[in-house]
Amino acid sequence: MYEKISSYLNNCMEKDVLSHGYIFYGPDELNKKNIAGKFARKILNTSALFHPDLILISSDGEEEHSINLIRQLKKFLILSPYSGTHKIVIIEAFEKLNAYSQNALLKIFEEAPCHAIIILCAKTIDSIPETIASRGVKLPFWKQNYSDSLKDK
Questions:
Q1: Which of 11, 41, 47, 144 has the highest CB neighbour count under 10 A?
Q2: The CA-based dihedral angle spanning residues 20, 23, 29, 33, taken in that order and rounded to the nearest 10 degrees
Q3: How far, in Å, CA of 112 to CA of 135, rounded?
Q4: Given a cut of 60, is residue 62 above it in pLDDT?
């Protein structure tokens, strides 16, 4: 499942041509989250669920993410990686970000340090402003049968 996406992400890592922004969109929430996590852990060369160079922002129901959280992300990304070569942020349910948070995130995308990778997960590509969507690699996630497709090195 998602062999093309997994193959693309593996090729990016093997060729060391990682983008600073990836947009995972589509209705398959579970696999977007799983593949984003596996991709981040492969980049960071760890199997641990927690890593000092990785932040996962999950939606907690109806609560919108505040602009302060996005500003904290900027501070996190500006710092050099603790170990390895990258710092990674995964934002689930991007569509729940308020307009102020989206604008702050746009600024981060525009000025992203070379070691920063931001993975946005959204239900639809239309929920992401074009100014942000145009700065990331868009990968569609439509429901398929489950299999573990992100191969281990």
A1: 41
A2: -10
A3: 11
A4: no
Kindly list the distances between the CA atom of residue 106 and the CA atoms of 82, 129, 132, 135, in Å, as whole numbers in the listed order.
Answer: 24, 9, 6, 9
Contact (CB, 8 A) for 46 and 80: no
* Whole-angstrom distance, CA of residue 22 vs CA of residue 20: 7
Q: Which residues contact 88 (CB under 8 A, 6 or more apart)?
A: 40, 43, 44, 53, 54, 55, 116, 117, 118, 119
Average pLDDT of span 79-87: 93
How many angstroms from the chain centroid is the CA of residue 11? 17
Give the residue-averaged pLDDT of 8-21.
94
pLDDT, one tens digit per residue, over 128-148 is: 999 999 999 999 998 654 444
